Amino acid sequence: MNSYPVGLPLPDHTDYSGLIDYGIIRSSVPASRSNQLQSYNSPQQKLSLSFSMDNDTYLTWLSWARTDGYYWFEIDIISGFNPVDITSTHAIRFIGDISYTKRGDNWLTVSVEAEMIPGEPQDPLS
User: Fold this and answer.
1) Domain ranges of the chain
2) Average pLDDT for consecutive 10-residue bins of the chain (126 residues)?
3) pTM over 0.90
């Protein structure tokens, strides 16, 4: 498995958000006690990541993201099991579109949705 390149910016900790999707399916019949079940053997952990960088770094980052970011890679991010400002190495891949917001003349923030391998045995916080 590839590692996130050294020298490229890590995700911002201030704009972290995530979703743990258990694949809940509810009965379509309106009732006071609807039936529901989980459709996944393990929950899907989605993260919305933001990376802040200058324009030159963005060109390098975007080139890497387009060729390797949509395959599994290891990166130091905040654990989905304990979303505080403690990072550990996790395997993730990008699963959404890349968007950017200009923050100034030579600064921007790039956002992308990622998926974490659920139930990683090496996650110290699981």
Assistant:
1) 2-27+36-116
2) 93 73 67 65 80 95 96 84 70 93 93 82 52
3) no
